Amino acid sequence: MVHTLGDNNSLFNQFIAEIRDVNIQNDPLRFRRNLERVGEIFAYEISKTFNYSEKDVQTPLGTAKMNLAEDEIVVASILRAGLPLHNGLLNYFDRSENAFISAYRKYNEKGEFEIKFEYISSPSIDGKVVILADPMLATGSSMELAYKALFTKGTPKHVHIVSVIASAEGVEFVKEKLADENITLWMGAIDSELNSKSYIVPGCGDAGDLAFGAKL
């Protein structure tokens, strides 16, 4: 199942617009904060899918019966661009465990690239709900690699894949490669084009560079 939050008119679209805006992008603090705010909205929407049970909560004047989520959550992000989005998810899932995956594009002299995986830090994900976040879903290869890396740490109950801006090609790639898996895709916006360098068009540029500065 694919949920595209930007298809519905809400304040969410203002944050996506600012993430895309080349002038607002000149302020890295603002860019990171917008990714964080988008993560908070994703967290709220994803929370509606959890299992809930009734709990007694003691107040100064009595006992309130509240329906509270009972799922164990692991928030996982692909470094480095995923960190602000991760923080937004963690602001709401503040009792969750955390996982981090290092995956990147390694270019050759012809400008072609392959996705390299180097490192994962993760708790056991057995029976837990995993939220796997990366701001951009371009070709989908990094997401597939990160997904498979997580499964070295157990078998989750369900995986929610979160991206702020995706390409239609990337979404179809993930749906095809992970067709038999128990996953839900949560996208902010889906753009129709990938250019010759596999960047999303119109997209927003390189989210990692915009958030943390250019790299060699």
UniProtKB/TrEMBL annotation:
Keyword Transferase attached: yes
InterPro entries on file: PRTase-like, PRTase_dom, PyrR_bifunctional
EC number: 2.4.2.9
NCBIfam families hit by this protein: PRK00129.1 (NF001097)
Catalysed conversion reaction: UMP + diphosphate = 5-phospho-alpha-D-ribose 1-diphosphate + uracil
Keywords: Allosteric enzyme, Glycosyltransferase, GTP-binding, Nucleotide-binding, Transferase
Functional pathway: Pyrimidine metabolism; UMP biosynthesis via salvage pathway; UMP from uracil: step 1/1
Domain of life: Bacteria
Name of the molecule in the record: Uracil phosphoribosyltransferase
UniProt enzyme class: transferase
